[in-house]
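FORM 7B: Structural annotation worksheet

SECTION A. Query
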Amino acid sequence: QVQVVESGGGLVQAGGSLRLSCTASGLTLDSYAVGWFHQAPGKEREGVSCISSGSGSTYYVDSVKGRFTISKDSAKNTVYLQMNSLKPEDTGVYYCHAYVEPVHYWGQGTQVTVSS
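SECTION B. Predicted structure
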């Protein structure tokens, strides 16, 4: 059975940092494109960053460029999202999404709260 699990969320003051982790069982993340999505309270889920399979090319939405870094550790079958200089608007649930068309897997999400 495939499971994708996020961890690392929490409460942090503005300007602080968190590192989110996305681990998987039943699949090898290196064979999938992996994205992080953010769902702010009362808003739709939006893509934040993603990393391609294989070469590990990365993408960031403009609002997090220079603050967030996505990376992967193939040996640990884990994808990370390092979040620095956090802002209150970064508050919400962060989801990990692993996909290779037409297969998509979502984690259950991890809560990030940034206080001002």
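SECTION C. Observations
The chain has no helices and eleven strands. The radius of gyration is 13 Å.

SECTION D. Sign-off
Analyst initials: ____
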